[in-house]
Amino acid sequence: MPSEAPARLVQLTHPDEGRRVALVDGAKLRLLSTYRSVYGFAKVALEMGWRLRDLLSTDLSGIVLDYDELHQLKSPWRFRASFDHDEEPARCLVSAAGTSPDEWTYLGLGATLRGHGDPIWSPHAGRLSLGDLAAAYLIAPDGAPRRVGITPGTYFSGATRNNVIGPELILDPELASVEGLAALYRDGARIWEQKYSSQGAPLLYGLAALEPDHFRFADHHRAWDAHVHFIGARLFPEQVSAPLNEADQSEVVWEGLGRPLNNLLQPERREERRLVATAL
Q: Which one, 16, 32, 121, 204, has least CB within 10 Å?
């Protein structure tokens, strides 16, 4: 296990190699061997009663990739969402906390998740939350939620599902204060930015306040379900919508939570089918 603490993971895909998980080690990514998803590692850690980071330390493959090259999208490798349910995407609930304990937004299921470098489809209506944080969870066999990690993110609450997380999932971050920046670039120039700060409130305090609200529902306790829950609205109620144009480049950076999350805004090309059900 590299000496960095806390551990940071990325999920990757390759035209020939398929899905892989890698451990971040400075400017290098060290591929893991046995399981092809963070979900797979987390599930086995729960079944074995191990800490996740201890399981990771036993599974380094010896294959090392250049993180700079991958992050700049100059490699056949591409980033996947930093957490998902690779076995059954429909068993990954994506949601967002509201500004009050009784408010939360359904954002879709696992198939809506995208990663660093993926396009964000141009929204015609709704709200793009540019500059957010998401917590990733796995539900244990006894129904108790287990937090896998925290990851940068962006989501769009509207008819178009844009739920982007990554590039890194950070295990057990203990931030004394949560500080971040969201920005938009147009033709290479920064045209908008918003800074975020928890004003000295530790990340774990915020999680302790909002997790009981999310997991109070009985159907949020189904064993082996995955949850991706955006938490920014509770931590940073001053969030505002960004002024978006096609071909804008978004960037989300959080201190202590890995490399920037970058995505390109593209016009939506989505086929809509309005169907009437027929009797069976």
A: 16
pTM of the model: 0.93
Half-sphere exposure of 234 (CA within 13 A, CB side): 29
Domain limits, the chain: 8-79, 89-266
Q: Which CATH architecture has domain 89-266?
A: Alpha-Beta Complex (3.90)
Backbone dihedral angles phi then psi of residue 276, each to the nearest 5 degrees: -100, 130
DSSP string, 175-241: -SS-EEEEEEEETTEEEEEEEEE-TT--HHHHHHHHHHHHTTSGGG--TT-EEEEE-HHHH-TT---
Count the alpha carbons within 13 Å of 208 in the hemisphere toward its beta carbon. Answer: 6
Contact 91, 83 (CB under 8 A): no
| Structure token digits, residue 70 | 């991958």
DSSP-derived 3-state class of residue 113 = strand
DSSP for residue 81: P
Give the C-alpha separation, 260 to 136, whole Å: 18
* pLDDT tens readout for residues 145-189: 999 999 999 987 666 678 999 999 999 898 999 999 999 999 999
